[in-house]
Design a protein that fits this description.
Elements lengths: L3 E4 L7 E4 L10 E4 L6 E4 L3 H12 L1 E3 L8 H12 L9 E7 L5 E10 L4 H27 L3 E4 L6 E4 L1 H12 L12 H13 L13 H11 L34 H5 L14 H4 L25 E2 L6 E2 L2 H12 L3 H4 L5 H16 L13 H10 L8 H4 L13 H4 L18 H7 L1 H10 L3
Parallel strand pairs: 5-7
Antiparallel strand pairs: 1-2, 3-4, 6-7, 8-9, 10-11
Protein name: C2H2-type domain-containing protein
Keywords: Metal-binding, Zinc, Zinc-finger
InterPro entries: ZN622/Rei1/Reh1_Znf-C2H2, ZNF277, Znf_C2H2_sf, Znf_C2H2_type
């Protein structure tokens, strides 16, 4: 039965998330653009839809890969943006470039992210909804005895529990899919595997073969009778992935998220007004009573700078660059010699994100452990800055690691151009310049 879950709170309007009446998620959902009538079919057109939002409407959705049920997320914001402008919900940025990279002064862009309480709560509720649906489906699959399906490799028809089918695949054909108690949406997973086999595609390396006997022999000899754990599209079939607040592993100690994003001292809950001096104050400002100077570096440079590819800490930027040359065969100055300051900022933030997500900077291959990722990048000589198309995005203007010492010393390297064709206005400057606009925006969603 369809029901509504209301996200209620004192500081923001309710966020409604409709739960699907189906146990199995629907495929090929038609989603309209947030601002125009262009229609995209999800999940196939997801990337095209996000590209359209950026190219046509200058809108970037932060951490979109970590959003549960993206279709519901976009449908919610489409309803909101029918009656409101982007400025009322999004962070505004001014860049000196068009979406296609051409120079143009003071072009306005919008960032929709969970620093907005309404967006933060929406993402949280969607995670809860996705988890609830997955648990409901999981319970059904463990107890349902009406299942019937022909084996992927032989003509045997297995009836009863899905666990019996998975046991048959392993016992008779040595195909390891996963333990039944850890899998969900098993029917969809098996259909996907069957489609690959029918198309003569290896389940692990996804190479295509000329006939079925050749494919079976390849999978037997190479040990490829299993699914590739590094393929992100398989994440939805493993229950453990549904209880994570973010897909990116945390490699550093953080403050509680709500404490970081919603400082109660800056908001009057009765009037909804905002103290801008407190709301936009830096953590080390004079307004912080418990502030101290223990992290101050007298020589003007951070006390330690973290390597881009491993946990090594360098005492100075020059020492760190020598380490990256010796350990990772990357000459940072040479690799970024043609880039201006802001482009190097994006490179650093992109590499930080890749390391936190345990993804290779060059080939984007996913790993389960940091040691495996480091070994792969070293052996394959993938310790580079990646393709420009991957890091030259507005989202990488924002630091991925809090108090990143490397960002503080980038201006010491070569290649800076004072007339750089990309410029970003900081949030602090925007707060002073557009205080009236920010006040109106904050009141509209009642911080």
């Amino acid at each position: 039965m369809e029901h509504e879950v209301a996200v209620a709170g004192e500081d923001f309007p309710a966020v409604e998330v409709k739960a699907s009446p189906k146990l199995k998620p629907s495929a090929n959902t038609a989603i309209k653009c947030l601002k125009c009538d262009k229609v995209y079919i999800f999940p196939a057109d997801k990337d095209d839809c996000l590209a359209h939002l950026y190219m046509e409407h200058r809108l970037v959705i932060a951490d979109v890969e970590d959003i549960a049920l993206v279709e519901d997320y976009l449908q919610y914001w489409r309803k909101e943006f029918q009656d409101h402008e982007f400025e009322q919900y999004c962070t505004t940025m001014f860049l000196d470039q068009l979406p296609d990279g051409k120079y143009s002064k003071n072009e306005k862009y919008y960032l929709l992210c969970d620093i907005l309480p309404q967006d933060y709560e929406l993402r949280r509720r969607l995670r809860e909804k996705r988890l609830s649906e997955a648990l409901e489906r999981h319970q059904f699959e463990l107890t349902d005895r009406t299942f019937s399906k022909e084996c992927l490799f032989c003509r045997t028809v297995i009836k009863g529990l899905r666990a019996d089918y998975l046991d048959h695949l392993f016992d008779k054909h040595f195909l390891l899919v996963g333990k039944p108690e850890k899998l969900v949406y098993v029917d969809e997973l098996l259909d996907h595997l069957e489609e690959n086999l029918n198309n003569l595609v290896c389940l692990y390396c996804e190479k295509i073969f000329k006939d079925r006997p050749t494919l079976k022999e390849h999978m037997r000899k190479k040990g490829h009778k299993r699914i590739n754990p590094n393929r992100r599209e398989y994440d939805k079939y493993f229950l453990v992935n549904y209880n994570r607040s973010s897909a990116a592993p945390t490699l550093r100690k953080q403050k509680p998220r709500q404490q970081q994003r919603h400082p109660s001292s800056s908001v009057d809950l009765e009037t909804g007004s905002v103290d801008f001096d407190k709301h936009f104050a830096r953590p080390d400002s004079d307004g912080e009573q418990d502030s101290d100077w223990s992290d101050w570096a007298a020589d003007g440079e951070p006390s330690s700078i973290k390597c881009l590819f491993c946990p090594h800490l360098g005492e100075t930027f020059s020492v760190l660059k020598e380490h990256m040359i010796d350990a990772h065969r990357l000459d940072f100055d040479q690799a970024t010699s043609s880039l201006n300051f802001y482009q190097r900022v994006k490179v650093v933030n992109y590499l930080r994100r890749q390391l936190c997500m345990l993804r290779c900077a060059s080939c984007d291959l996913q790993f389960d452990e940091l040691d495996l990722l480091t070994e792969h990048m070293t052996q394959e000589l993938h310790c580079g800055i990646g393709d420009r198309a991957c890091w030259d995005k507005p989202e990488f203007f924002f630091p991925y690691i809090e108090n990143d010492g490397l960002l503080c010393v980038l201006d010491d390297s070569t290649g800076d151009d004072p007339e750089a064709d990309v410029r970003i206005i900081s949030e602090d400057s925007m707060a002073q310049i557009n205080k009236e606009a920010e006040q109106l925006s904050l009141e509209n969603f009642k911080l």
